[in-house]
């Protein structure tokens, strides 16, 4: 316990790696894949999307040694606003598909949620919401393919990647939902937080998806 506390107190930025990003606005969201734990997605306020292979960068830095120059981490891909499928406004959330890095999900202030094919950088399916999207999330243990979507309006909507349609609207908040988090052990349990500072644990226990 003391050793863990010491490591936490001595956390610092890496001196051996740097990130080469073309994003102009602030970074709104990060997500590291849970399959290989090496691919990092970033979403920016200027609507730019990028992915980085952090494992390769760390291995290169370790091989170079502490006396060498920094290893620069370049994006595997970049989607900027000029891309035909890019979001019109800032991207507010980005998530890997839980069991496959061949797909990832984005939500935006343009009111759209998009499911992207990682290999082609084309949109596999899209959902149009009734207000600005504040957050998105998928269950890492679920047998379903539901995206929980929080917007500036009260309630959470569930979008089904398999059917390409909304399936449920979950009530419980009086203001917009700013955060969603599925339970890592219960595919029907969803935690949420809203604009007023209220957290709901859980918002719903639904078993008939």
Describe the protein.
It is a single chain. The protein is mainly beta and 209 residues long. The strands form 5 sheets. The chain has a 4-stranded antiparallel β-sheet. A hairpin with a 4-residue loop joins strand 16 and strand 17. The longest helix has 11 residues. The N and C termini lie far apart (42 Å).
Tell me briefly what this model is.
The protein is mainly beta. The chain has helices at residues 2-9, 54-64, and strands at residues 17-19, 27-32, 39-44, 49-53, 71-73, 77-79, 91-96, 103-108, 112-117, 122-128, 133-138, 146-151, 156-160, 165-170, 177-182, 189-194, 199-205.
Question: Which helices and strands, and how do they pair?
Answer:
Blueprint: H1 2-9, E1 17-19, E2 27-32, E3 39-44, E4 49-53, H2 54-64, E5 71-73, E6 77-79, E7 91-96, E8 103-108, E9 112-117, E10 122-128, E11 133-138, E12 146-151, E13 156-160, E14 165-170, E15 177-182, E16 189-194, E17 199-205
Parallel strand pairs: 1-5
Antiparallel strand pairs: 2-3, 3-4, 4-6, 7-8, 8-9, 9-10, 11-12, 12-13, 13-14, 15-16, 16-17
């Amino acid at each position: 316990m003391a050793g863990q506390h010491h490591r936490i107190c001595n956390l610092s930025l890496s001196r051996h790696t740097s990130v080469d990003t073309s994003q102009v606005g602030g970074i709104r969201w990060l997500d590291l894949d849970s399959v290989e734990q090496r691919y990092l997605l970033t979403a920016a306020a200027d609507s730019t999307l990028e992915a980085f292979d952090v494992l390769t960068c760390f291995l290169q830095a370790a091989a170079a040694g502490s006396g060498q120059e920094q290893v620069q981490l370049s994006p595997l891909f970049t989607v900027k606003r000029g891309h035909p499928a890019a979001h019109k406004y800032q991207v507010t959330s980005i998530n890997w598909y839980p069991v496959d890095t061949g797909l990832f999900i984005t939500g935006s202030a343009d009111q759209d949620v998009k499911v992207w094919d990682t290999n082609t950088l084309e949109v596999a399916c899209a959902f149009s919401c009734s207000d600005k999207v504040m957050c998105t999330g998928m269950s890492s243990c679920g047998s379903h393919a539901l995206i929980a979507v929080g917007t500036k309006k009260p309630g959470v909507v569930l979008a089904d990647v398999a059917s390409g349609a909304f399936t449920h609207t979950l009530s419980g908040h009086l203001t917009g939902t700013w955060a969603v988090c599925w339970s890592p052990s219960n595919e029907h349990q969803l935690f949420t937080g809203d604009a007023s500072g209220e957290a709901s644990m859980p918002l719903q226990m639904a078993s008939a998806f």
